[in-house]
């Protein structure tokens, strides 16, 4: 299958508008919530940690945020920068 340059919306060095970037960022955040919260709910429920699940969700979101920050900013040898 042949791909034309016209198939791409943005090239490697292109910058989307603030509106387009905001929609993409919101979509990314909402999709990541599913991957972070769902396993916490399932594992916490199976282990009978009902009253601790909100705390576990908060900690999962916090660790995910710290990991994202390290990956984006490059701390020492960690992350891409």
TrEMBL record:
Keywords: Membrane, Transmembrane, Transmembrane helix, Transport. InterPro entries: NCS2. GO terms for molecular function: xanthine transmembrane transporter activity. The chain crosses the membrane at residues 21-47, 53-72. It is a multi-pass membrane protein. It is found in: Membrane. GO terms for cellular component: plasma membrane. Its main location: membrane. It comes from the Bacteria. Belongs to the nucleobase:cation symporter-2 (NCS2) (TC 2.A.40) family. PANTHER family: PURINE PERMEASE C1399.01C-RELATED. This is Xanthine permease. It comes from Vibrio maritimus.
């Amino acid at each position: 299958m042949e791909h034309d340059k016209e198939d791409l919306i943005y090239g490697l060095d292109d910058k989307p508008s603030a509106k387009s970037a905001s929609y993409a960022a919101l979509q990314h955040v909402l999709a990541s919530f599913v991957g972070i919260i769902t396993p916490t709910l399932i594992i916490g429920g199976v282990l009978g940690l009902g009253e601790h699940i909100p705390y576990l969700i908060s900690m999962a979101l916090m660790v995910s945020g710290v990991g994202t920050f390290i990956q984006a900013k490059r701390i020492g040898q960690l992350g891409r920068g």
